[in-house]
# Entry
Amino acid sequence: MADADDVRRLALALPHVIEMDSDGFDFRVADKGFVWSYPERRPGAPRIIRTDVAVLYVGDEAEKQALLLGEPEVFFTTPAYDGLPLVMLRLAQVDVDRLAELVTDAWRMRVPASLVGDLGDGTGAAAR
# Structure
């Protein structure tokens, strides 16, 4: 079972990542977000920053739908994210190795091509 501390450790282990000031977690590479805490919106009430749920950049609608349909107990979305290449991940439903893969994949999709080689062996193993 993964948690917000695991997200933070894994994201910060990746090259060129910065953490934005947040009530939860918010990680960027080259000024592009790739994983952050889910800001749950409730009608008529202030949003709640959920550190038990991560928002992940997935690249495109096909990947988003594959994750949502393939593992609905792990991934979900809301109407606010319609048309965006983002999914929400229930951290308690994944182990740290799977989380490392997901965070590294999100980073790879956002990092400029000129910086991808800085990951090292290219497997993401350094982030675990």
